[in-house]
Amino acid sequence: MYFPLMLLLCIATADADDWQHLFQSAKYQDVKISPDGKHLAVAMDSEGKRALIFISRSTMKMVGATKLPNKNEVGSYYWANNERVVIKIFQRRPWQEQLGFYGELFAVNFDGSDPELIYGYRNVDNTLGTRTKKKKKIDGWADIVDMLPDEKDHIIISSTPFGSSFAGLHKLNIYNGRTKKLVIGSPVADANFITDEQGEIKLVTGINKQNAIEVHIRKADDWQELAAEKFGSNFTPLTFDETGENLFVRDNFQQDKLGLFKLNLTSGKMTSVFSNENADVGHVKFTADGKNIYAVAIQDGFPSYHLINPELKEAQVFKQLVAAFPEQSINITSRTKKGDIYIVRVSSDIEAGQFYMYDHVNNKLSGLFKYYPNIATQQLAFTDPIEFMSSDGFKIRGYFTQAKKQTVDTIAPLVVLVHGGPHARDYWQYSKDVQYLALNGYSVLQVNFRGSTGYGEKFHNAGFKNWGASIQQDIYESYQWAIKSGLASKNNACIMGASFGGYSALQSAIKYPKTYRCAIAYAGVYDLDLMFEAGNIKNFYSGKAYLHETLGKDEAARKQMSPVHHVDKIKIPLFIAHGEKDSQVPFEHAERLKAALDEANKPYTWHTFSRESHGFFDPENRAEYMKNVLSFLKKNI
Positive or negative, the Cα torsion across 110, 116, 120, 125? Predict the structure, then answer.
C-alpha cells in the first residue's frame, strides 16, 4: 500500500549539543476530527498551558480556540456532535505544579461560542471566563460513561459525591448542564459502568474492601452480583458485541495471562476470544463510537497487534496502517461518522508522537503535527527489547538503549533505570529521560522485574512481599546479563529510579554494596511502615488491603526491607531528590532517610522541589533535575 506523505508543518532541527530541550512540553498533544469531518480539535501547548484549537479541514486555518483561564487547563476532550466538544477540566493547585482532574466538565462550540461549565463544584463565573454562566454547584465528581453518538444534546456520566466512593448514573445536557438521574446508584465502590449500543446501563464493576473486583449485572430495575467463580481476578469490562448479548472483557479467567473474553450476560458463561502465551493482552482498540472492538495490542518486546473483527472498516484501515508503519505503535484517535477520514497517531522509541490524516476514499496519508517539531528522530537513540532467565527460573524482559555518544571500541557506562509501581511496567516507547542519558554518553537498561504487569498473574504476584528481596535480585541479574552480553562493563554502572524505582536505587545499594558506583533516587519510598501512616494510598477504599497484599503484615519483614533502617551498609555516593508536595510518597520519606544518613555520617547530594508532587509537572524542574543527575553521573562513572 502506498501512502504519499504531505507534511503541513516545517520540522526544525535543534542544536545537537543542547539536549535540555528534550524536557520541554510537547507542542502538539492530541488531534481529533469532528463526526462530519469538517473540523479538527487540536490540543497543544500555549505559553505553558494546554489549550484547544479548532481548525477547518478544508482550509487548514484556525476557526476557534479555547484556553481556560487562571489555573485551569484543557484535559481529555471528546466531540459530542458536529459543533460541540466536552472537556475534562484539569486544575493546577496554587501550592503545587501537578495538574489534576477534580470531576468538572466544560463544553464549548468549535468557534468558541457558548462556553459552559456543564458539571462542577464551582458556581462563580470568574474562574472559567466572564462568558461562562453562573449556576448551581454540584459537590461531586463526574466521569464520562457514554458519549451517546446518536444524541445531539446529551451524554451519560457517573457522578460520585465528594467524600464517597459510590457513584450514580446521570444523563447530562451538554448545552445547559441539566442532569437527569437514570440509576439510583452503584452497589460497589469505584464504579465502572458499561452501557449497550442504545445507551442502556447493563453492568457495573468496582472494588470492595478486600481489594477484590465485584461484577454486578443490571436486570430489570435491580443489580444482580455475578458469582466470583464466574470471572478471573483482573476482570475489566469493555463493550458489547454486535448481538448485544455478550460483553467483551479483558480477564485472566482460568488462565495465567490476561486475554480477551466474551461474557454472556444471560448465562454468565465466559468464552475465550484471544490470548497470547507470552504476554497479557494489552491496549484494546475500540471503534470510534466505543461500541465495538477491532484489535488488541500485545507488548512483548516490540508492539504487535491481533485483529478481532477483520470485517470492520476500522480493522481494515488499521491493518493497512500497521503495514505502512512497521514496528511502530499505531493509534486511531478518531474518525468521521461515515468512516472516510481517520486521524492517526504514530509513535516509537525515537518518535514521541506524530499525527496523520488518512483519507480512506483516496488512499492518501497527510502529515499533520508532531509532539516535538524541533526534535529530529535521526539524532535519537534506538531502544531494543531484551530477555533472560533469572537464577530461579523466571523469564525477565526489559529494554536496552545503547549510548549514542561514546568512544570507539569502548563500552559506555550504564544507568540501570528502574520503573515505579512496582506493579507497573516499562514499555517500548519514547522516553525523555532515556534519550537524555543516551545522548549524553550513557547506555540505559530498563528491566521488567517480577511483580511487573503485562506478563501474567504468576509473574505479577511474585513481587508481592518481595520489594526488597527477589525484585532487587532481578534488577541485579539484569546488570550481570548486560555484562555477559558485552553491553556493559563491571563496576561501571549507576542505578536510578523514581517512586519504587527510587526505593530500588537505595535498596540495591544496600543489598549489593559493591555492584553499583552510585545511586540516584527521586520520590522514593524509604520506610515501608510509613506507607500505612502517611500518603494517599492508605485512604483509598481498598488501600489498606492493597498495602497488606503487596507489603505484607509482618512489621519485622517490612523493616528489613526499608532502606531507612540500613543506611550503614551503603558504600556509594547517593543523589536524593523529592517533591515537597508529594501526597503519594510524602516528603517525610526523604526526611527520614536524610536523618538516618546524617546519623550514620553518610555523604549524599540533596535536592528538593518546593512545588512538585509525585513526579515532575514543571518541565523546567525536570530539566534542572536531569542536568544535576548528569553532573552527578559524570563525577561517579
Answer: positive
With residue 478 as reference, give the H or E element that holds it: helix 470-484
Q: How many CB atoms lie within 10 A of CB 410?
A: 9
Q: What does the alpha-carbon distance between residue 479 and residue 498 come to, in Å, rounded to a whole number?
A: 18
Q: Which three cell numbers stand for residue 217?
A: 449485572
Task: State the pLDDT at residue 299.
Answer: 93
Of all residues in the chain, the percent with pLDDT exceeding 90 is 73
Q: Give CA separation, 465 vs 317, 470, 476, 555, 593, in Å.
A: 45, 9, 18, 11, 21
Q: What is the DSSP string of 67-133?
A: ---TTEEEEEEEE-SSSEEEEEEEEE-TT-S-EEEEEEEEEEETTS-S-EEEE-S---TTSS-TTSP
Tell me the C-alpha to C-alpha distance, in Å, between residue 445 and each of 2, 217, 474, 521. Answer: 37, 45, 12, 16
Q: Give the CA distances from residue 89 to residues 132, 177, 276, in Å, rounded to whole numbers and listed in that order.
A: 14, 15, 38
Contact 213, 197 (CB under 8 A): no
Distance between CA 490 and CA 485 in Å, rounded?
12
Report d(CA 338, CA 314) in Å as an integer.
Answer: 11
**164-217 pLDDT tens trace:** 888 888 999 999 999 887 767 889 988 999 999 888 899 999 988 888 899 999
Query: Could you tell me the pTM of the whole model?
Result: 0.91
Beta strand 414-418 pairing with 493-498: parallel
Grid coordinates in use for 131?
A: 462568558
Task: List, for residues 32-68, the tens digit of each pLDDT value.
Answer: 999 999 999 999 999 889 999 999 999 999 999 999 9
Q: What is the mean pLDDT of the chain?
A: 90
